[in-house]
Design a protein that fits this description.
This protein is of the alpha+beta class. The protein is 51% helix and 13% strand. The protein has 9 helices and 4 strands.
Length: 354
């Protein structure tokens, strides 16, 4: 009895080990303080403040909220997260037995003329089966696949966070650029008005004989030169609004304005000498590390391919000409264990591991 128990527990004990290297973060030597640092570094950082506390313009906050809801890049990144999550679930499902069913019904009739016997009446045949299969993860192949898929899922989540941060920064940058163009247009319009008054003055003096034609022509040329900047600025404003609309995920159109750039509250300055641990919060670095974890897990998958695969299969069902006898007189069942392993693959497995 003890031998049977030991034989049953042996695969489970062996399954606790997985071939391949376990991931270890590469060591990084960082200095205790920044070169040229004066005094202790401040613990507070601009990275600790959420974006809605940095920007005090309600209009800009509304635009950023709309971009995070409807932006194409954010939606694509969110879809990739869902795809990676589903792939992780697919990889994890291999831990459990796979149970399937099948059912068939047939009606057939054979002729007895070839055998010199009377015609055989039609035969109805019912066939119902439930089958199960399970691969014993003896070498950790499935666990390494699940580990790799889970790391890719985390990487896609960090990529989504990176897209959101980039989108917030880009919308804010384009918005401030738009407000800067608005200020330039306002200055140009005031300049045109001033030059128009100057030209009118010289023109009246020229008509009254108190000014020369050269002075009037010079004032007119200056007015024309400044007035030509207004259509260019208006075109740049329209193009900038279209860029923001693309970021917001809407059709091109006007963009609401809030406070002018001169009225915006400047964000706090980033203090010098911040700890290097802040780099661990960067989404792009976290995404790269998750990809490294996934690649490290696939090494274990490649190593597990060198070893045999143990699987258990079984089925239970019934086959009968009558439904009432399907699981009584016509019941069927089977159970089997299989062992498959590589002998010669032309270097395919070794190259995969390399």
């Amino acid at each position: 009895m003890r031998r049977w128990i030991a034989a049953a527990l042996l695969p489970l004990v062996a399954a606790g080990c997985a071939v391949g290297p376990n991931y270890q973060r590469p060591p990084v030597t960082a200095p205790n303080e920044t070169r040229g640092q004066i005094g202790p570094a401040e613990a507070a950082s601009l990275a600790d403040a959420p974006w809605w506390e940095i920007f005090q313009d309600d209009t800009l906050k509304g635009l950023i909220d709309e971009a995070l809801r409807n932006g194409y890049d954010v939606r694509i990144a969110a879809a990739r997260v869902e795809e990676a999550r589903a792939n992780a679930g697919i990889a994890r499902s291999q831990f459990f037995p796979q149970i399937d069913y099948n059912a068939q019904w047939s009606r057939s009739r054979s002729s007895g003329a070839a055998f010199g016997i009377p015609p055989i009446p039609p035969i109805n045949l019912h066939d119902v089966n439930v089958g199960a299969s399970w691969e014993i993860d003896l070498w950790g192949r499935i666990r390494r696949l699940s580990e790799s898929a889970l790391a890719e899922y985390f990487a896609s989540e960090d990529a989504r966070r990176g897209v959101m941060l980039s989108l917030v920064a880009q919308v804010a940058t384009e918005y401030f650029q738009l407000r800067s163009l608005d200020a330039q247009l306002e200055i140009a319009q005031r300049t045109v008005k001033a030059f128009q008054e100057t030209y009118d003055l010289f023109n009246r003096r020229f008509e009254g004989g108190a000014a020369s034609a050269l002075e009037t022509s010079s004032a007119e040329a200056s007015l024309t030169n400044v007035a030509a900047q207004i259509p260019l600025l208006e075109n740049r404003i329209t193009a900038e609004e279209n860029v923001i609309c693309v970021l917001l995920g809407r059709n091109p159109g006007p963009i609401a304005r809030g406070a002018a750039n001169t009225e915006e509250i400047l964000p706090p300055q980033v203090p010098s000498g911040l700890p290097s641990d802040l780099l661990q919060r960067r989404p792009d670095l976290r995404e790269s590390e998750e990809h490294l974890i996934a690649a490290n897990a696939t090494v274990g998958v490649a190593m597990a391919n060198f070893f045999p695969t143990i699987s258990l299969t079984g089925s239970y069902g019934g086959i009968s000409s009558e439904v009432s006898n399907l699981f009584t007189a016509g019941k069927t069942w089977s159970i089997a264990a299989g062992l498959t392993g590589p002998l010669f693959h032309g270097g395919q497995i070794k190259n995969q591991y390399d």
